Amino acid sequence: MVDHLLAVSATFMALLTWLYLWVGKLENGRSLLLSPCPLDQSEPRYLERDLLESRVREMEEENQQLRLQLSQSQVAAVQGQDGSYGNAQWVASADTGPEDGENTAEERSTQKGNHTTCARRPMVEKCELIHVACVCAGHNASRDVVTLVKSILFHRRNPLHFHFITDAVAHQILSSLFQSWMVPSVQVSFYDAEELKSEVAWIPNKHYSGIYGLMKLPLTKALPSDLTKVIVLDTDITFATDIAELWAIFRKFTDKQVIGLVENQSDWYLGNLWKNHKPWPALGRGFNTGVILLLLERLRRIGWEQMWRLTAERELMSMLSTSLADQDIFNAFIKQNPVLVHQLPCFWNVQLSDHTRSEQCYTEVSDLKVIHWNSPKKLRVKNKHVEFFRNLYLTFLEYDGNLLRRELFGCPSQPSADSLRVQSALEDLDEDDQCYDFRRERITVHRLHLYFLQYEYVPTDESVDITLVAQLSMDRLQMLEAICNHWEGPISLALYMSDAEAQQFLRYAQASDVLKHRKNIGYHIVYKEGQFYPVNLLRNIALRQANTPYVFLTDVDFLPMYDLYDYLRKSIVQLDLAHTKKALVVPAFETLRYRLSFPKSKAELLSMLDMGTLYTFRYHVWTKGHAPTNYAKWRTATTAYKVEWEADFEPYVVVRRDCPEYDQRFVGFGWNKVSHIMELDAQEYDFVVLPNAFMIHMPHAPSFDISKFRSSSSYRHCLTTLKEEFHQDLSRKYGAAALKYLTAERNI
């Protein structure tokens, strides 16, 4: 075997020498060996020479493989065993040298010494569009995709087009996320996974990914017919380099190769993990499908759809089901068609599952390209360098996504309609305006991650279900468990947080015995940006995501009375909210005690009110806000009663979900609820106080925004300006009927 390889190697070397010298005689005897840079491509003979040079490079790669096989054979002869790692002995096209666009240390040294002025061919053209596909289903996978995308955006220098095959949940989450993210030079397309289920549903699969773990198989059918190549990634991938380096490897494919994969780094396909372990057929160690390069055009041409189906049908006759989803079928197919695969260096898919050989893929941090958390244990996987990998992953997990909204200089892209609208609005603002910051906040587009945690709402039999709607920031997180103990119905919450705070919240919720068992709470992360708390934007987001016909508009600092959920549903029916414009007022009280024995009935509350343990809400600082509720009448009321709107009235109400939204010009402290109640009145809602309902405000430290209101005359001036503008808009919208609000304001 060794003698044979030596003979073949010598033959190739001789042929290489002859070709190289012959190429050098082209161009009327002018030797290319004396020409430091490529000739003008417009010259006719250049094309012929280029073809010959291409062939020389191919033969050099093949000879490199032969030398590798020779060294492996010599080692095996000495050691008496196969010491090779990988499938290099049968995949002649494996990348063993530096990637395109990279130089070895020797080459860098040579170039530096010779001061070459030759222009190097770039890895990928400057503005070449890179296509990336990913299958994503459910709430958890959607969070994983965000981290994957962050790692790609952080390193990228090319325009990107993401192709997501999603279920309805992931589509809703990711479409709103990318629409609000507005990253330049990024396109996103969605494909309905439901339409692909019939293609793979017939395949029994034991893998935890379920049917979605098989959906990479029909990608040639799902993706656009004019898309020629794509990088396919699992959601649990983290990039440590520019994805363009991976895209450049498509240029190394031979004419027959259609799939690029990294060898599997565990012993799974060797069949020796346990007694009677019988994996699907694979070549050597097999391949991992967490990172795939697909030449879609060639795959369609060779009839990929029929080929993988026939492979699956044949193997399922004996295997009965897949254990590793699509990976089993890819490997069985490759075993039958090894010439179609291009083996990627293992640093393009460093697999961090237990008992893998991933440590052989790198010797330095700079060697890492792609990290794959392919163990069900994810970050808890056992690995010698897992702490380093975990920190790298956490860096992107908590990285501020707003910083990735950067332009790719020199690569013009068509801005989205939302981007144009925001840009136009910004240009209309006067930066010398004293209230510029307030006005800018109104048009700021915050990144939005809907349904951050698992959400499963099951409608009640009656059509009178009601959602508690509220907003909060990190400093009010401790209220969630208490609210859940008081309210068993659905909840929609908008949480204003940074990327890092969102991860803290995730850990808090997953560790809470109360929260982790509640699946009817929609948590919607609105990522921080700007200097003000966008309170009404948050309320609107929570309101829009309510999935019930009625909503209870409250604040997170309030605890509703026990059984308020059931009481409100009965009141909705009794007061016919379905056919009348009513806003049901839930009387608000407060305590100054952090520990409160919560009243179990109205009688108990009245007793505590008389003893001074409770107070009517804000009676000592803002009486006008709730005075129209008429607490004196409520004390003895047994039936609901109507009250009239008065200036600065801001009760907490139950309304139909199609009520007016909050006015987003009001940020921070001041007039954010008052303006909403005013618009309800302008739309002729009746305010009806419920006689046996109540809620209690729990004490907390003053917010940063109320401190700014109290200390800044400029803040108060701008709030007055915004109020005047709101009155003007209300008059334009509702005509003469809105004049009473302006009159009431002047009479205060």
TrEMBL record:
Gene3D superfamilies referenced in this protein's UniProt entry, alphabetically: Spore Coat Polysaccharide Biosynthesis Protein SpsA, Chain A
Keyword annotations: Coiled coil, Glycoprotein, Glycosyltransferase, Golgi apparatus, Manganese, Membrane, Metal-binding, Multifunctional enzyme, Signal-anchor, Transferase, Transmembrane, Transmembrane helix
Domain of life, source organism: Eukaryota
Cofactor: Mn(2+)
Cellular localisation: Golgi apparatus membrane
Stretches that traverse the bilayer: 6-23
Coiled-coil region list: 49-76
Keyword Cytoplasm on entry: no
Bilayer disposition of the protein: Single-pass type II membrane protein
GO molecular function, one term: xylosyltransferase activity
Pfam entry (one): Glyco_transf_49
InterPro entries with a match to the protein in the record: Glyco_trans_8, Nucleotide-diphossugar_trans, Xyl/GlcA_transferase
Biological processes annotated in GO: protein O-linked glycosylation via mannose
Catalytic activity field: 3-O-[beta-D-GlcA-(1->3)-beta-D-Xyl-(1->4)-Rib-ol-P-Rib-ol-P-3-beta-D-GalNAc-(1->3)-beta-D-GlcNAc-(1->4)-(O-6-P-alpha-D-Man)]-Thr-[protein] + UDP-alpha-D-xylose = 3-O-[alpha-D-Xyl-(1->3)-beta-D-GlcA-(1->4)-beta-D-Xyl-(1->4)-Rib-ol-P-Rib-ol-P-3-beta-D-GalNAc-(1->3)-beta-D-GlcNAc-(1->4)-(O-6-P-alpha-D-Man)]-Thr-[protein] + UDP + H(+); 3-O-{beta-D-GlcA-(1->[3)-alpha-D-Xyl-(1->3)-beta-D-GlcA-(1->](n)-4)-beta-D-Xyl-(1->4)-Rib-ol-P-Rib-ol-P-3-beta-D-GalNAc-(1->3)-beta-D-GlcNAc-(1->4)-O-6-P-alpha-D-Man}-L-Thr-[protein] + UDP-alpha-D-xylose = 3-O-{(1->[3)-alpha-D-Xyl-(1->3)-beta-D-GlcA-(1->](n+1)-4)-beta-D-Xyl-(1->4)-Rib-ol-P-Rib-ol-P-3-beta-D-GalNAc-(1->3)-beta-D-GlcNAc-(1->4)-O-6-P-alpha-D-Man}-L-Thr-[protein] + UDP + H(+); 3-O-{(1->[3)-alpha-D-Xyl-(1->3)-beta-D-GlcA-(1->](n)-4)-beta-D-Xyl-(1->4)-Rib-ol-P-Rib-ol-P-3-beta-D-GalNAc-(1->3)-beta-D-GlcNAc-(1->4)-O-6-P-alpha-D-Man}-L-Thr-[protein] + UDP-alpha-D-glucuronate = 3-O-{beta-D-GlcA-(1->[3)-alpha-D-Xyl-(1->3)-beta-D-GlcA-(1->](n)-4)-beta-D-Xyl-(1->4)-Rib-ol-P-Rib-ol-P-3-beta-D-GalNAc-(1->3)-beta-D-GlcNAc-(1->4)-O-6-P-alpha-D-Man}-L-Thr-[protein] + UDP + H(+)
Cross-referenced SUPFAM superfamilies: Nucleotide-diphospho-sugar transferases (SSF53448)
Record GO cellular component, one term: Golgi membrane
Region (Disordered) location: 89-116
Pathway listed: Protein modification; protein glycosylation
Family: In the C-terminal section; belongs to the glycosyltransferase 49 family.
Biological role stated in the UniProt entry: Bifunctional glycosyltransferase with both alpha-1,3-xylosyltransferase and beta-1,3-glucuronyltransferase activities involved in the maturation of alpha-dystroglycan (DAG1) by glycosylation leading to DAG1 binding to laminin G-like domain-containing extracellular proteins with high affinity and in a phosphorylated-O-mannosyl trisaccharide dependent manner. Elongates the glucuronyl-beta-1,4-xylose-beta disaccharide primer structure by adding repeating units [-3-Xylose-alpha-1,3-GlcA-beta-1-] to produce a heteropolysaccharide. Supports the maturation of DAG1 more effectively than LARGE1.
Protein known as: LARGE xylosyl- and glucuronyltransferase 2
Organism expressing this protein natively: Scleropages formosus
